[in-house]
Amino acid sequence: MTRILALAAAFAALVLSAAAFTPAHNADAATDLRVIVQAQTDALNKGDLNGVMSYYSDDVVVSGNVVCAQRCVGQAATRPSIAMQIAQHANYQIISLREPSTGNGTGRIRVVAYAIKACGQQRVEADFTVKVTDKITMQDVQFDLKDPQTAAFLQCFAALQAGGAPATSGVPSLTPPRTGDAGLLSD
After folding, report:
1. Which partner for 150 in 19, 124, 170, 187 could form a disulfide, CB atoms 3.0-4.6 Å apart?
2. Sites in the chain below the pLDDT cut of 50
3. Is 81 within 8 Å of 113 (Cβ atoms)?
4. pLDDT score, position 51
5. Which of 101, 107, 92, 116 is nearest to 40 (CA)?
6. Which residues pair with 56 in a beta bridge?
7. DSSP code for 31
8. Is 18 within the bounds of a domain?
């Protein structure tokens, strides 16, 4: 009988400790900027389009990324940008994230994607600003034009979008390969 009680106590302790490491879904966690931004980034890295979109408010304003260069307002306008990032197997790493005032965040990201590799670069970096209530209401991305890899990628991407010859010769299509990674993910 003592063994059963000891096993039950150990099991309870295990469940409680696991719960302590699980993000809470209460009101406090829902408004925590860091939790929301990291969860959205995780969903993006997993290729979960609906998951990413669930972190945006219905009237979100997104600007500064490749599709929403000027401004996308609302989920319907933002969704194609996220879908393209997922199709390019974009992987985002949050380098820094600060919340100088409640609900207002600034940070820096590093991105690796097929399109970046196709333009002969390893990664790009950008600074971002985000506003969060219970969801992301505004997200602005500013590519770091002083970073040589970011600048080279943007030049190549602009040339591809314009239908001209990219600055890097022999740049393959921005369509991801159907199987494998075609060597694009090698370091």
Report:
1. 124
2. 1-30, 165-187
3. no
4. 97
5. 92
6. 136
7. T
8. no
